[in-house]
Specification:
heterodimer, A: 482 residues, alpha+beta, 7-stranded mixed β-sheet, 6-stranded mixed β-sheet, 11 helices, 25 strands, B: 451 residues, 5-stranded mixed β-barrel, 9 helices, 17 strands, 23% helix, globular
Chain lengths: 482, 451
């Protein structure tokens, strides 16, 4: 048994006096009914956050959440119950409730031995919360404030937050597979308000990943993020009304990859495709993008916010090619949907916590680099929009319509980036937007580590990325008619 | 499938037990040297089932508990929370909060709500109507609802299913100024989402009913039929060309406009000077006939609360009258920062509504004459600092007061400051299902971006 697994069992099971025998009893309770699969998910999470405003860290919070989720699967049916008392009677009760979706008379045997799932080594099993003295966390936020204010006298307000999570998980499955993971996650965020002549604008930046606060400090995050937030806010002070209508759009590298998350990623999640409710249903092998486009989901990148050593069902994460040279290749799968569709799990079975049912979810979703010089891509556009920073996005899976909203964008006029324009929502159709991508830059970049994806009320950390790319026609939702 | 979850013996689920827990936490905080403290605890349990294409898809039993505490050492504060309510966890949670308070800066505005503002009596708002349908009955209801949707129209060829959920919870809040209050509440919901399909492609839509008391549910077949009708009417949607147009927000999406208003008059947005309504108190911000008000004590109301998250008494009030902004949305911290008094909104607004006009929905369409009816909004393109507004939309093109054809893949944009003043009418087709209630809202002019 690996040392990580021992460590996790020590954290999750030992305090509750739950050993092999007790887990066996739990499994036996579940498998007393006719099931295809069952699993038990133990979790212990610690979370902290510190908030600065008006130059002072005035509030901080610390949160502990622990519990066990018990799931029973029979065909398309899922029975689920959880408890935040990690004690055997409560867990047996949860198992009884979960298994009720299936008839009496089980034919699955309780595993006689546990085999460990291969687990990647993408991050250290460290505790971010103790990776820095509390006083130093406060200093880090104060440094953000100082850096932001030093940039420009027009900075009126600085809000900064620092948060850290350590999530310890253990999944035990009816097929005898067990997997453990200790997942650190840190994040630093800055928002500034600037004012000039009575006009106020804001700018935000942030980042983080599966590492310690020390790593964040070593990256010089405090100064970098503060500068970037101020720069964006000042750009927006000069922004004019954004154009309205369909036009050429050049997206910058990195975070604008939220395009791929909304337009492509959600529509390729296995559950929607099994049910046939996605605009991409039944389209594997078809062209859904120009030949310039190769899009992957990769949960196995070291230290990234969207990465996992093992997903929440014990499947190791991997790089999954979703679109290769424009052809749709693969869906994102968890165990249940992969089984029902006769496909292979892709390590995308994720859940917000023990109190939620796993679903196919993205990890880090990005487009691979192309062959074009980003400067030439901009120069090729007579008239259009150059969008480099975004807020959130959303998609209607069934109609395929998706949106994402700019927070920093400029006009392109005669091949040159000219005036900044106000935030606008861009709207398109997922299954065909990438067919209009005519140029893909060589400057692939991943986002700085701020993404959170919500689906059916469950939030999970994700990453996105892309090179600079040109979309020949996308609707820009400004107020200025052309 | 008649398994019911019974509360485990170790969980404090009675008001008395939770009150005792809060008293214990507050005592522990004082013992650890805090000058003041406040704590809240909650327990909840419930069941939710989903039926898809006539078959059970999920049966989910939920049971949650949590405890949160904020401790004050003079003007320094720290917070902590836990899902473990055991005696050891209480001590360590208070300790965690206290250790944070050592590092936070002294803030002259921090502290508990003023004693005078605390609720003196706690009215029974009739929020607790436990149902416990059991999994079998819940499945039957969801199945009947989905069946009604699928049999409503031949073009309903697929489904995301119908879900029934029933939850009950108990929340207790207390502080060292002597306040200790408990509220028990239930919430039951039935929703249905189906997919319509024809040669033009697929469209999904949904409908739902939600209530404190299941006897107040919309008829379950009606929920299914509405979901079906809404999905079918979206088929063969077109894109429109870019234009300036009046926009009628259908009631279920119109409440988002009021949410943006609340976001702009919230204390944090104001003292951070991050609101397009900064400095507008006492000034006209809406069309001159508009009234927006809060009714926290509505019996069975989905947003009802006898006291807010700080124990402050909630009360009826007008936020906007004759189009003038009369009040902000404040907790005691932001109120002190602004030199004002708390409005009892720690945790948000309670049953916010905009006064309905005389027109029903067809009359609202007729009033618009020609323009865009919006039935769905997507994305987050709203900037509270500037009021700039740009969101993805789907709906219908209307001419001569009649719906002409469905539209999609368009955006609507404007600035909220202007949009609020340009509200032409509010319908009496009020959607009662949420904490924010409004009829359809007609905005005089917005920019529609399309092809």
């Amino acid at each position: 048994m690996s040392s990580l697994l021992n460590q996790v069992r020590g954290i999750l099971l030992d305090p509750a006096c739950i050993g092999e025998g007790e887990v066996g009893r739990l499994m036996a309770r579940l498998l007393g009914h006719r099931l295809d699969y069952a699993d038990i998910y133990f979790q212990y999470s610690r979370h902290e956050s510190w908030m600065l405003e008006e130059g002072q860290v005035k509030s901080g919070s610390h949160n502990i959440e622990q519990g066990v989720g018990v799931r029973a699967v029979s065909g398309e049916k899922t029975g689920f119950a959880y408890s935040n008392d990690i004690v055997l009677p409560a867990l047996l009760e949860a198992a009884t409730a979960a298994r009720a979706i299936a008839r009496q008379g089980g034919d699955l045997a309780v595993p006689s031995a546990w085999c460990s799932s291969p687990v990647l080594d993408l991050y250290q099993p460290l505790d971010p919360l103790t990776s820095l003295e509390d006083g130093a966390k406060v200093k880090l936020l104060e440094q953000v404030e100082t850096e932001a204010r030093r940039q420009d006298p027009r900075v009126k307000q600085v809000m900064a937050s620092l948060s850290g999570v350590q999530e310890t998980v253990l999944v035990m499955r009816s097929d005898g597979v067990q997997a453990a993971d200790i997942r650190p996650l840190v994040r630093l965020n800055v928002t500034v308000i600037v004012e000039q002549g009575g006009r106020r604008e804001q700018g935000s930046h942030g980042g983080g990943g599966r590492f310690s606060y020390q790593d964040l400090l070593a990256k010089g995050a405090a100064a970098t993020y503060a500068h970037e937030a101020v720069r964006q806010a000042l750009v927006n002070l000069d922004a004019d009304a954004a154009p309205a209508g369909t036009m050429k759009v050049v997206l910058g590298p990195g975070w604008p990859g939220i395009l791929l998350h909304e337009a492509i990623g959600h529509g390729l999640e296995g559950d929607f495709n099994r049910k046939g409710t996605s605009a991409f249903s039944g389209r594997i092998g078809e062209r859904v993008a120009s030949v310039e486009c190769t899009v992957v989901d990769d949960g196995s990148l070291p230290g990234r916010r969207g990465s996992l050593n093992v997903d929440d069902e014990g499947t190791p994460t991997q790089q999954t090619v979703l679109i290769e040279k424009g052809i749709l290749k693969c869906y994102l799968q968890d165990l249940q949907n992969a089984r029902l569709m006769g496909m292979t799990p892709t390590g995308n079975g994720r859940r917000e916590s023990y109190a939620h049912i796993p679903m196919p979810r993205m990890t880090n979703t990005f487009m691979l680099a192309g062959r074009h010089d980003p400067a030439e891509i901009i120069a090729s556009v007579d008239k259009g929009l150059y969008a480099v920073n975004f807020g959130g996005g959303q998609v209607d899976i069934t109609s395929g319509k998706f949106v994402f909203s700019t927070s920093e964008a400029y006009l392109i006029e005669n091949g040159r980036v000219t005036r900044p324009v106000k935030g606008a929502t861009l709207i398109g159709n997922g299954p065909d937007v990438l067919t209009r991508v005519t140029r893909v830059g060589s400057d692939i970049q991943l986002d700085s580590g701020v993404g959170t994806c919500g689906k059916e009320g469950q939030n999970v950390p994700v990453g996105v990325g892309q090179p600079t790319l040109l979309i020949e026609g996308l609707t820009v939702g400004g107020t200025h008619g052309s | 499938m008649t398994q019911e979850l019974k509360p485990a013996a170790s969980v404090a689920t009675t008001p008395e037990a939770l009150r005792a827990l809060i008293s214990e936490v507050l005592a522990e905080a004082l013992k650890q040297g805090a000058s003041a403290a406040e704590a809240s605890a909650s327990v909840s349990q419930g069941l939710s089932v989903t039926v898809r294409l006539g078959n059970v898809e999920t049966v989910e039993h939920t049971r949650d508990k949590g405890l949160g505490v904020t401790v004050y050492f003079g003007k320094q504060s720290g917070s902590a929370s836990t899902s473990d309510l055991g005696p050891e966890a209480i001590r360590s949670t208070v300790l965690a909060a206290a250790s944070i308070a050592r590092y936070t800066a002294a803030d002259e505005f921090s502290g508990l709500a003023d004693v005078a503002s605390l609720a003196k009596s706690i009215p029974d708002l009739d929020l607790y109507h436990p149902w416990n349908p059991g999994a079998d009955r819940a499945i039957e209801i969801a199945a009947a609802c989905e069946h009604a949707a699928r049999s409503a129209d031949a073009r309903i060829l697929n489904s995301e299913g119908a879900s029934l959920s029933s939850h009950e919870g108990l929340e207790v809040y207390g502080n060292t100024n002597g306040f200790l209050g408990a509220v028990a509440a239930t919430r039951h919901a039935l929703s249905c989402a189906v997919v319509a399909q024809d040669d033009s492609g697929m469209q999904r839509d949904y409908w739902y009913t939600v209530a404190r008391d299941v006897r107040d549910f919309e008829v379950l077949e009606s929920v299914g039929r509405q979901a079906a009708a809404r999905a079918v009417r979206r088929l063969a949607a077109r894109k429109l060309s870019t234009r300036e147009t009046p926009v009628l927000y259908e009631a279920p999406v119109a409440s988002s406009l009021l949410s943006h208003f609340v976001g702009a008059v919230r204390g944090t947005s104001l003292y951070r000077e991050a609101s397009f309504l900064l400095g507008q108190l006492g000034k006209p911000v809406f069309a001159p006939w508009i009234r927006i008000y809060e009714q926290p004590h509505l019996r069975k109301g989905l947003g009802s609360a006898p006291f807010d998250n700080e124990g402050v008494a909630t009360r009826d009030r007008d936020l906007v009258r004759d189009g003038m902004l009369l009040g902000y949305v404040l907790d005691s911290y932001s109120a002190r920062k602004l030199g004002m008094e708390t409005t009892g909104n720690a945790g948000g607004v309670h049953n916010l509504a905009i006064e309905a006009g005389a027109d029903d929905f067809p009359e609202m369409l007729a009033r618009m004459h020609t323009g865009l009816l919006v039935t769905e909004l997507i994305g987050f393109g709203v900037n509270t600092v500037t009021g700039d507004y740009s969101r993805g939309a789907a709906g219908f093109w209307v001419e001569n007061g009649e719906i002409q054809f469905p539209v999609e893949e368009i955006t609507i944009a404007g600035n909220l400051r202007e949009m609020f003043r340009q509200i032409v009418a509010v319908g009496r087709d009020v959607d009662q299902r949420g904490n924010i209630r409004t009829g359809s809202i007609l905005v005089e002019n917005m920019t529609l971006a399309g092809s």
